[in-house]
Amino acid sequence: MESILDWLCDAPIAYNARPHTPDSPALENVKARTALMDQLRSGRTPEQTALLDAYDDLADDAEEDFSYRKFVYGFHLGAALALEIVQGREKLLQP
Questions:
Q1: For 60-70, how does the pLDDT look when each residue is reduced to its tens digit (9 = 90+)?
Q2: All residues at 6 or more sequence positions from 52 whose CB lies less than 8 Å from its CB, including other chains
Q3: Model-level pTM greater than 0.90?
């Protein structure tokens, strides 16, 4: 069974964030990266294309792992902050 943190992190963008607008910098970045990859793939031998695909897959895996670890760290930090506030709320409520 998948953990709740896994589910939250892997939920589709529509479930956990606002979608990007068509002219957002993030989408422009994706378009530029896709265009560059298409240029790199065009005119390559099948062996070169296979190597490029393998590199791209490894880069995607590393980015996904790093994003997940950042998400979990942020979640734990937020939970610890909430716990600290709840445990010390008498101090916070006093003038």
A1: 899 889 988 99
A2: 37, 40, 41, 44
A3: no
